[in-house]
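Catalogue entry: protein
Contents: sequence, fold tokens
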Amino acid sequence: PAEAGRPLRVWVLYHWLGHYRTAVCEELISNSKNRYEFWGSTTSFGEGIKVISELPDGRFRPTPTYRARGLNLQPSAVWHAAFGRYDALVAHAGVAWPTMWAAAAIARLRRKQVWYWTHGWTRRDNPSRGRIKKLYYGLAHGMMLYGHYAKVIGIEAGHDPAKLHVIYNSLDAQRQLALGAEITEDQRRAALAELFGEHAGRPTVICVARLNPGRRIDLLIDACRRLQASGQPVNLLVVGGGDIQPELEQLAIDSGVNAAFTGAVYDERRLATLIGAASVSVLPGPIGLFVMHSMAYGTPVISNDRFEGQMPEFEAIVPGLNGDFFREGDAADLAE
């Protein structure tokens, strides 16, 4: 424990911190009695994730990070774990990062608090991976998880329930709520008219994601094709970039789907306008913060029903209230 009355020095160590975490980092810096310092890489190694590169008061430290044979290495983190001044370590829980193991173990030896801020589990592990996780997770005093599904799996795997705390993930909710109230219906309609012209009055399906095969945007295009064939045409709006964008654009053309692809968009006002203008948000593959992003602007969400392998935010979807689930891989069911 730190000296009485002194703010705790909390060291947050991540491989990289996604830009969507900026608001929660700034909140901890500005409104916590403790002092937080954030370490991480300034690149996401080709994963298409925009990352934090600076924070107020110099609280972000760019950390040299290397990838070798699928492993992430942060040598300076090990040095800081051994010799740095901190009271608590909050770390990512990726088991494929040996220096995270080392930093956590050294922090425990130095009698520091160790916490993991992580998905934890999105699916049940095979026995060998489960044993590895048991060792690594055992180094922590507690785990801060993104969802209740992860906690259930963790308890089933034999982890102490008292050490598993669900805190969810983070977006800039205050800004989103303000934008949702500020942007007018006329502005939303104008955005759709700019994208879809004379067809702007059709229902619009929006998908915001990094464009890779696992997201199954091809299935969404197929579902839109089926709606078109049944006499219920929709507009498809795909927001996000990725290597397969040209392939998906061509698939939409070949399928006769009226689609617009914007590429990556990070301007929150633009996202608020587009998401708020849509009739429904759909991501056929695993869905994450797009759930919360959509609901912040009042747009219901559809994703697949295979919860093993889903991202934690799927838990917020309540069928019949704010969205629904379709049979994974079934374009006809998605269209329905």
About this structure: The first helix runs from residue 22 to 31. The first strand starts at residue 9 and ends at 16. The two ends are 57 Å apart (CA to CA).
